[in-house]
Amino acid sequence: MMSSPLIGEFAPDFTCSAIRGDGEIIDSFNLRAHAEGKYTLLFFYPLDFTFVCPSELIALEKRMDSLREENTEVVTISGDSHFTHNAWRNTPIDSGGIGPVSFIMASDLEGTILDNYGLRASSNNSYYAAGTAMRGTFVIDKNFIVRHQSVNDEPIGRNVDEFIRVIEALKFFEEHGQVCPAGWNRGDPGMVSTPSGVADYLSTHSENL
Q: Hey, which residues are catalytic here?
C-alpha cells in the first residue's frame, strides 16, 4: 500500500551500492551527496531484464542532455543487485538490454529504500510481483524537498517529457514567484496566486485550457 505522500517533505536519504554512468561499480552511493546543489529525478522501476522498464530507461537516456541542462541528476533504482544492473547495461538494446546509460543505477536488495518511499509492492497488488519496486517517480529540489511524486501501475510506462516539464515549472515558480496553470510549458505565462491574478489569467487564457 502506498504510504502518505512525501510532497513538501525532505526526501528520504539513502546509501547503497550502485553503478555509475561510466560503468564504475561503487559500494557506497549516497543520494544527497550526489545531488548536492542540483535537482533530482528519482526513478523507481520493478526489475531489470523485464518489459516496460527498458523502454523507460532508454527514454531517460535519450533525454539526459535536456535533464543536464536543467541541472538535474537522474538516479534509477530497483531491487536488483548492481551486478545485474551492470549486466543489463552491457546487453545490447536489440537483445533486450538498455546499453551503456549515463545515469546512476542504484540497488536496493533489502527493500529498505522502497519502504521509505512507500513503493514496495504488496502481495495484494494485481500486477506487481510482491516485494518489487513500483513504477514511482520523484522530483526533488535543490533543498532536497520532494516537489512531485507519481506512481504508475506496472503495465503503464511513464512519459519522461512530463517530468522535464515538471522541473521546468518548478524552476519557473522559484525564479518568478508565479504559479503554473494547467498545461503550462516553458515560455508560457504564469499566474499570480491572488484572486485578481487568477481572474486576469483566466480572462485571456481560459479558451486554451
A: 53
